[in-house]
Design brief:
2 domains; globular; 7-stranded mixed β-sheet; binds nicotinamide-adenine-dinucleotide; alpha/beta; about 25% strand; Dihydrodipicolinate Reductase, domain 2; about 325 residues; 15 strands
Amino acid sequence: MHYAYSGDIIEFMFKIGVVGTGRLSRVHLRHLSRIPDLSFHFYDQEFDRAQELASEYPGTAVRSFDELLAEVDAVDIIVPNDLHAEIAVKAIEAGKHTFLEKPLDVSVVNAKRVVEAAKSAPVTIQVGHVLRYFSMYRKAHDLVQSGAVGKPAAIRMTRGGGMPGGESGWFADHARSGGIFMDLAIHDLDWLLWTIGPATEVYAKSVGAKVGHGADYGLATISFANGCVAHVESTWMDAQEPRTAFEIAGSDGLLDYDSRTNATLRTGTKLEQNHHPDDDPFYLQLLDFVTCAQAGKPANVSIEEAYAALELADACRRSAVSSQPVFF
Ligand SMILES: NC(=O)c1ccc[n+]([C@@H]2O[C@H](COP(=O)([O-])OP(=O)(O)OC[C@H]3O[C@@H](n4cnc5c(N)ncnc54)[C@H](O)[C@@H]3O)[C@@H](O)[C@H]2O)c1
C-alpha cells in the first residue's frame, strides 16, 4: 500500500501496474476505475499506446516493465497469451500481487513455472477465468453442485464469434494464442473442471490445430471421472454476433442458456427459479482480485485450477493434431 499525505487527510492508494494497453485493457480500466483508492501506471512495448491509455484514465505511462515494477503494489497483465508466464513470474518474484489474463500461458512447461513461483510467494495471484463471475454460469455451477439436475450426464457448451484481431494479428498465430482450445474454449474447460470435476479422456477435432495459424473452430468431447460427458464447441469462424450457450442435462433436470435467444438462465429442475444478470463479470472479477490482494488473502480462483484448465486445453489441442484421444 502507498500512503499519501495531503493536508489533514492521509490517503491510501493501492497502485496497479497495467502491462499491455491494447483492446482488453480498456475493458479492465473501465471497471478498475470504478474501484475506490486505486492508482494506475501503464506499460506497453509501444509507449504511445501506454500514453493513450494514460490520457483516457488518470495514471502514468512508463517506459519499461522494471520501472513499472518499482512503482506498484500489483500488476494486471493483459498481453498476448505466449508472454503470460514470463511476465507473471517476474512480477511474482518482485513481490507484486498478480492478475493475469487467461490462459495461464500457451505452454504447459512455462505455465508450471508460474505455479512454482506462486508456491512460496506471499502475494495474491489470479488468472482471468471470468466465466466464474458471469451470473448465468455461476448460478448454473451452484445449481449443479446443489444437485438441482441430479447426476449430471451430458453437457454442451458453445462459445464464439468472429476472428479476434489483436495487435499485429497475434491471435491467428497459434504459437502465440494457443489456437481455439487454449484461447477460447479454456473459459468453458475451466467451468467444467470447477463444476464437474477432473477429466479422464479427451477427443477433439479442429479446423486449425494441424495448420497452426488462421481462424479456427474446435469441438472437443470430454469424459469426466464422475461419468459425465461434455461437448465443448468453440469458434472464431461465426460471422454473426458473438454467442455463448450451454445445456446441462442430468438425471433430474435440465439447465439451458443461449445468449442469442434468452438473456436469462432457464431451469427445468426441481429448484425452478428465475435468474437475471446482476453486475458486470469483469468488474466483479477485478474487484474480487483487488479485495483479496488488499486483505493479503489467496485469490478465489487458484493458480492450480488455472493450470488444470490449461492442461485440458492442451490435451484438446494435442488430440486435434494427432486425431487420437488423450487420456489423463
Ligand atoms: N477474458 C476474456 O474474455 C478476454 C477477452 C479478450 C482478450 N483476453 C486476453 O487479454 C489479453 C490481451 O488481449 P487483447 O485483445 O487486449 O490483445 P491486444 O493485441 O489488443 O493487446 C495486447 C497489447 O500488449 C502489448 N504487448 C505485446 N507484447 C508486450 C510486452 N512484451 N510488454 C508489454 N506490452 C506488450 C501490445 O503492444 C498490445 O498493446 C490476451 O491474453 C487475451 O487472451 C481475454
